[in-house]
Amino acid sequence: MYAANCASCHALKGQGGGIGPELSTIALKGVKFIEDAILRPAKSITPGFETWAVTEKDGRKTVGLKSKDAAGEVEITKATGEKVTIAKAEIKEIEQDKDASVMPDNLNEAMTVKDLQDVLAYMMLQKGQ
Ligand code: HEC
């Protein structure tokens, strides 16, 4: 369950993707918090993982996490893991989207109640050292 649906974005004990936050100590936040994070990701976006929408002067729009903000350019990491570098001179508008998370809010659609319980139980084992 976790490996198929979550590990592409989340690292756990050094394994997995680096798009979302590391989850090695997630149990400390409590089961209610974790359930909310899965069912309604946009409700409580983890600080540092806010969603940004960049519109370029040519009309192209890129949505994702701001993974780098340098003097002349920003780097946006999309939910797919693709990184897009955009020159600041080409940006028409950059704004934070507080109503959307890069974590999909329909993950539970593919899960049975038991799947969700299994994932929550697995998350509650992640207490760090
Ligand atoms: C497409 C990438 C992606 C997938 C797939 C994904 N997540 Fe996330 N997750 C994120 C991002 C980005 C955040 C940070 C933004 C937010 O809080 O909504 C996040 C936040 C979280 C948080 C809150 C972490 C904290 O410390 O506040 C939890 C818990 C979580 N995800 C669990 C899961 C679980 C369990 C699954 C699988 C059922 C999953 N995620 C699938 C990207 C993803």
Structure, explained:
- This protein starts with a helix and ends in a 6-residue tail after the last helix.
- Helices cover 19% and strands 28% of the residues.
- The strands form 2 sheets. A 5-stranded antiparallel sheet has the order 6-5-4-3-7, with no helix packed on it. A two-stranded antiparallel sheet has the order 1-2.
- It is elongated, with a radius of gyration of 16 Å.
- Strand 5 (73-77) and strand 6 form a beta hairpin.
- The protein has 129 residues and is α+β, with helices and mostly antiparallel strands.
- The mean pLDDT is 96.
Entry keywords:
binds heme C, 129 residues, 7 strands, 5-stranded antiparallel sheet
Summarize the structure.
With 129 residues, this protein is an alpha+beta fold. Helices cover 19% and strands 28% of the residues.
